[in-house]
Amino acid sequence: MLSNALNRRHFLKTTVAGAAIVALPLPALALTEAGAKQLVNSVVADINRVIASGKSEKAMLRDFEKIFVQYADVPIMARYALGADARSASPAQLRQFTKAFQGYISRKYGRRFREFIGGQVDVRNARRIKAGYEVRTSVKLQGSSPFDVTFLVSDKSGRDKFYNMFIEGVNLLLTERTEIGAMLDARKGNLNQLIKDLNKTG
């Protein structure tokens, strides 16, 4: 559901930079195929509900952050995005980074989600993987052919949550790890400065 101004090529170029699948240590517990598919259906429905609300951009971005926190395994995603530096961070820094990361991601992708108008997202199928389930959806944007968006879902947190997304096989979480790493390098490894800057980004 993207407007004509945000075609598939632009969407892919501005949201992804890597293409390797991440193997995260997320053992499946009581997660079922039906539960994984229901989670993705709920994510899509809630995003569409916010888009149709007519709220201001600022209010919509707050709602997108709530959706991200509700349906995504944010701590796992944040630790992976931080990479090896997560091991040397203090518990307080990890909490602060996780909070900053969730806001940064919500604003970054929320501005694209709000343009999901006039298209369609269909949940197609799910298959068991080591970490839980892979749920494939088909996205039809205005003026372009359908393409795949895949959610990886686990229940490691005690609830069914997604911990990564792929667009036509391109790994979004790996992209964020690359970008966060570059940001941290630019700040000479100063995690506190990165946290401050992520809170201001977007």
Can you tag this structure with a few keywords?
five-stranded antiparallel sheet, Nuclear Transport Factor 2, Chain: A, single chain, alpha+beta, about 50% helix, about 200 residues
Describe, in plain words, how this protein is organized in 3D:
- It contains eight helices and five strands.
- By secondary structure, the chain is of the alpha+beta class.
- The protein has one domain (8-200): Roll (Nuclear Transport Factor 2, Chain: A).
- A five-stranded antiparallel sheet has the order 1-2-3-4-5.
- Helix 2 (33-51) runs antiparallel to helix 3, helix 3 packs across helix 6 (91-113) and helix 4 (74-82) packs across helix 7.
- The chain is globular and about 45 Å long.
- It starts with 7 loop residues before the first helix and ends with a helix.
- Residues 1-28 have low confidence and may be disordered.
Strand percentage, roughly? 15-25%
CATH domain fold name = Nuclear Transport Factor 2, Chain: A
**Strand tally, please?**
5
Order of helices and strands: HHHHHHEEEEEHH
Average of per-residue pLDDT values:
83
Across the major sheet, the strand order is 1-2-3-4-5
* CATH top level label: Alpha Beta
